[in-house]
Each structure stands twice: as C-alpha cells, then as structure tokens.
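ok trying again, last paste got cut off:
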Amino acid sequence: MKIPTIALLALMPLVPSAWADTPVAVVEDIGGKPASVEFMDYVEPGKVIKLAAGDSIVLGYLKSCWRESIRGGTVTVGTEQSEVTGGTVDRTKVGCDGGKMELATAQSKQSAAMVFRKAPGPNTSPKPQFKIYGVAPVIELKGGGTIVIERVDVPSGDRLEVAIAPAELVQGAFYDFAKAGKSLKPGGVYRAKVGDQQIVFEVDAAAKGGPEPVAGRLLRFQPAG
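nice, full thing came through this time. structure:
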C-alpha cells in the first residue's frame, strides 16, 4: 500500500526527535570557557560543542563507557563516541553499567515487588540492579532531599543517612560523595532510598576511592512529584 506523502512527512520528525532527546554522555570536566556546555551537563546525540585552542572537555559516555578527553576543535556528540575535527581526543574505556543504571532509574518509583519481581526471603539480600565502579557515588537528586543508603548483603550492614541541601548540589542536581568525604565498601550491595524511590546496586570489588569517572558511579533518582 502506498503511503501518502503528507503522512510520511508527518511521521518523519518523530524518529529523530526521540533519538535526539536521549542524553548519551555527561560532561565530567571542563577547561577554559566553552560556550554551550557546563560541568555535569548531559549531552545528546548531534550536539555540537566548539572548543577554542585553550579549551578542553571530558565526556563520559553512559552506555559505551568511553571517556573522552578532548582539547580544541569542534566536537559532535555521537551515540557511543564523539567526532572531533580540528582538535585532539584521547579515549579510554572505563567501568560503567549505564544501560542497567537507566533501567533502574526508570523502575525506582515502582514498588519493591515490581522492582525485584519476587520478594526476597528473610535471609536473602535483594539482587543488585546494576554496578558502580567507585566507592563514592555521585547522586543525581534535583532539588535535594534526604537519601538513605544501607548495606543489604551482610547482617547489620552500614547505614548512611544524608540530608542534601539545594546549596550543596552542582547544577541543582548532583551531590558527589567523594567531595563530601563519604564512601561505601568495595564489593558491597546497597539499597539507596529517597522518598518512595529505591535503587539496589553493587559496588565493584575493585572500586577505588576519590573522584573516579562520573559515568561509572552515578545513582540517578527521578524528580519528586
């Protein structure tokens, strides 16, 4: 069956729009004053970033796990890595579990029964939904709030309760445990709760302290409301 041209034109914008609205990387560091991005911005496929000769940027791709250090030139954000013209780029594969992390974020407001599909037994810890690769997570929590993180794979596990004020957030959304001097245990399984949201995650057994790549230690919560 032949589809009318008008119908085709009406459908065509839907695909690029859906593709372009999905962030694929986070700006982990900036040097100089690039005009179109800031520290901890999410960037989408197709975004163009122009860097002067003295400007630099570090992009952490959330699914492909490429970490790019770019100096100068024009950067076009892709789905898995950037295209850089007129500048230099160094790429390194880092530990990240971005695809599973995004799914956990989408599930975070569901009930525990739906998130874990089956309630764990009295001596069974919940199965982690994804893994982070640093002992100090970066929490995305727009507007701030109180987060409770408790270890669930050992009896009487560690428990942290942190009230995050809006003034402590970078870009109004991000709280870095590394900068706050807080950390978790390598190899531990934790449940993080904010209001009615919860995420269960594992800290990689080889995870290190300090400001490890952001893409590998994000915990993303949906805005309240």
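cool. The helical segments are 5-11, 14-20, 98-107, 112-116. Residues 1-20, 111-120 have pLDDT under 50 and may be disordered.
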